[in-house]
Amino acid sequence: xxxxxxxxxxxxxxxxxxxxxxxxxxxxxxxxxxxxxxxxxxxxxxxxxxxxxxxxxxxxxxxxxxxxxxxxxxxxxxxxxxxxxxxxxxxxxxxxxxxxxxxxxxxxxxxxxxxxxxxxxxxxxxxxxx
Length: 130
What we know:
mainly alpha; 6 helices
């Protein structure tokens, strides 16, 4: 057995490409194959899907985190991040529902529901049966 490099694992599981895709694509291009066709030849199966997660809560929270870092000259702590999420979430909850959240639980339930809308592509599943 041959040792598998990190680059090869990323190509296979991260991009759905042949583990030696970089070398293969370079060889194809050197042989006169168009770059797009060379990439297609190194791909294993269909291209992994990409999702656009345009969720206002997450977009505004990310902007608030960046503003915090600019204002304070440091990255926000987990507590700072949670406080910013609550502030942004409360504002968006009110904008969405036309009222403030009844309590902390309702607000965080709504925030959790918004965060669960994020879609991530999955390369595959590993199942083990005993």
